[in-house]
Every structure is written in C-alpha cells, then in structure tokens.
Write a structure and sequence with these properties.
Length: 81
C-alpha cells in the first residue's frame, strides 16, 4: 500500500511550531479525504489537520502535547491506490 505523510502545517506567516491538542482518529482507523484527524494549536491560532487522502491511519508519530516544528512528519496514512 502506498503511504502518505502528514506534516505539521503552517497556519500563519510566523508559525514555527505547533502543539498537538487532540487526535480525532487512532492508528488502524479508516479516514476519508478531507476528514479532520487532528487539532493543532500555535501561539495565535488553533487549526484542524485534514486527511490528504482516504485510507487507514497507519501511524501517529507525535502524541498529544508534543510541540512539532512546521514541516515535520506527524503521521502516516496508508492508501489503497
């Protein structure tokens, strides 16, 4: 199965890192493209991370409360395509 990396997005011009507030899905659960899978907070904003593709959330690489630099991989989705 192909794998798609989910990275910490940049929600604002000055955002350098984000804190994972909540995972909406657990490893092994099915996700649909566009579905919110995590909530992330930065100094100025709280944002949602959506699944970039449908598939299975294969792995979560950072837990709730972790501060993650923008652009770093936070999870992996396995797709059927």
């Amino acid at each position: 199965m192909p794998k798609i990396n989910i990275i910490m997005p940049k929600f604002g011009m000055t955002m350098q890192k984000g804190t994972i507030v909540e995972w909406k899905k657990k490893p092994g659960e099915k996700v649909e493209k566009g579905e919110v899978i995590a909530i992330v907070e930065s100094e100025k904003i709280t944002g949602e991370i959506e699944a970039p593709a449908s598939g299975i959330l294969a792995e979560i690489l950072h837990g709730v409360g972790d501060e993650v630099p923008v652009g770093e991989k936070i999870a992996i989705i396995e797709t059927e395509e």
